[in-house]
Amino acid sequence: MNEQNPAPEEELNTADQAEAAPPSYEDLQAQVAELEGRLKDEELRGLANEQNLRRRHQQEIADAYKFAGQKFAAEMLPVKDYLEMALLDQSGNFDALKMGVQMTLNELQKAFDATHIKEINPQPGDKLDPHQHQAMQAEESGQEANSIIRVLKKGYLLNDRILRPAMVVVAKSAENAE
After folding, report:
1. How does DSSP classify residue 23?
2. 3-class DSSP assignment, residue 53
3. How many CB atoms lie within 10 A of CB 158?
4. How many independent structural domains does the chain possess?
5. What is the pLDDT confidence band of residue 11, given thresholds at 50, 70 and 90?
6. pLDDT tens digits for range 14-37
7. What is the pTM of this model?
């Protein structure tokens, strides 16, 4: 039996020696090549991921521009429907037509509210604000110079940005009249 035991001990010694021996130059070269391959693969995957993100971002921006008016357009559809119904009305009833126009205006106001469009409606006597009003005419008046006499067209804001300034007639001083 003693003759059989030395063989496994010899196998263990040989395995211990193999583990303790430093790797050969060729083994190290193979490990370096494998690590370089992994690094190159990760780098390519990172670049592809970055390119995909950039492409997706550009598409999202293009879609945002393309569909920016979608909410407003959807809000305007009922207004168009009411106007078409008013044109189809053959009853000749003025009161019904007036009520239909009022309903259409109410629907338009709802669309404006939903899309954050607000009126600029200055009152006579208000001071001219060049950021919100556009003086279309100047007339002599007993009012202070550059104050609003009347509004020709209301102005509109979209999220605090001027869509159209209010078009107004302003008072001019008697000195400027000459």
Report:
1. P
2. helix
3. 14
4. 3
5. low
6. 555 556 688 899 989 999 999 999
7. 0.60
Domain containing 77 equals 69-115
Residue by residue, DSSP assigns 63-117 as HHHHTTTHHHHHHHHHHHHHHHHHHH--S--HHHHHHHHHHHHHHHHHHHHHTTE
Q: How far is Cα 171 from Cα 81, in angstroms, rounded to an integer?
A: 42
- 11 lies in some domain: no
Let me know: does 125 contact 148? Beta carbons within 8 Å: yes
Task: Classify 135 as helix, strand or coil.
Answer: strand
Per residue in 131-178, pLDDT tens?
Answer: 999 999 999 988 899 999 999 999 999 998 999 999 999 998 766 544
Question: What are 117's strand-pairing partners?
Answer: 158
* Location of structure tokens 């940005």: 161
Question: Rounded to whole angstroms, how far apart are CA atoms 136 and 153?
Answer: 10
According to DSSP, residue 40 is labeled H
Map tokens 């001071």 to a residue.
127
146 lies in some domain: yes
Give the residues across from 161 on adjacent strands.
158
Query: Quick count: other Cβ atoms within 10 Å of Cβ 138?
Result: 18
Q: Residue 119: in which H helix or E strand, if any?
A: strand 117-120
How confident is the model over 30-63, as pLDDT tens digits? 999 999 999 999 999 999 999 999 999 999 999 8
